[in-house]
Amino acid sequence: KAGVTQTPRYLIKTRGQQVTLSCSPISGHRSVSWYQQTPGQGLQFLFEYFSETQRNKGNFPGRFSGRQFSNSRSEMNVSTLELGDSALYLCASNLRGTGDEKLFFGSGTQLSVL
Amino acid sequence: AQSVTQLGSHVSVSEGALVLLRCNYSSSVPPYLFWYVQYPNQGLQLLLKYTSAATLVKGINGFEAEFKKSETSFHLTKPSAHMSDAAEYFCAVTTGRGTASKLTFGTGTRLQVTL
Question: What's the pLDDT tens digit per position in B17-73?
Fold first, then answer.
């Protein structure tokens, strides 16, 4: 069974641009979550999508948004990039509602903002 | 709100020695607790999780953790370290069904294994 797939693996952008990251969950998983990992702030929860609806949200500005498609694939968008948005963005999928919930993470997208 | 504190950002052990990584949690409701491992340039891999079924939880790669409510701790142990265990380890907490995807992570402990 294929794991969680994130594309692209690396991205370089400049301040003010916008970026879209993609995540394909494990087959059968309908929940997709996004996390930001930085050396200074560590791992922080961005949001979760389940059945194409945002179910949980972290404390990030509105520049960070996401969506989920009917095939459970998810995209995350960051608009008006700032230097501080440089981070590893991790996506995780989950068999939500089964009573045995656990996150399976992808390898991440390393975003550098210049 | 919940939180976890990992004591020690770096831990160094000799190969074959006991591994002990410390995690203390704070939660106003019964917590679900997790340990994850991250190897360089990779995502996080689940080692084990506690969801109130048993206080001693066995995970992958020989790791285990014991939930101690009186001490609000969930320390990770392995009897004998292997070179391949060198990685960063994260403790995480959430409060249950419906929020299992919204984990609060500790700051991580980097484990070094020496010959």
Answer: 999 999 999 988 888 999 999 998 889 999 999 987 789 999 999 999 999 999 999
Q: Measured between beta carbons, which residues in chain B are less than 8 angstroms from residue A107?
A: 41-43
Find out whether A78 and A59 touch, Cβ atoms under 8 Å.
Answer: no
Determine contact, residues A13/A20, Cβ cutoff 8 Å: no
Distant-in-sequence, close-in-space partners of B70: CB < 8 Å, separation ≥ 6: none
DSSP string, A24-37: EPPTT--EEEEEEE
User: What is the interface size between A and B, counted as CB pairs within 8 Å?
Assistant: 62
Q: With CB atoms and an 8 Å threshold, state whether B100 touches A101.
A: yes
3-class DSSP assignment, residue B62? helix
Q: Which residues make Cβ contacts (< 8 Å) with residue B104, sequence separation at least 6?
A: A45, B2, B3, B4, B92, B93, B94
CA-CA distances (angstroms) from residue B64 to A6, A46, A79, B9, B23? 30, 29, 42, 20, 13
CA distance B36 to chain A (A): 10
Count CA atoms closer than 13 A to B18's CA, side-chain side: 7
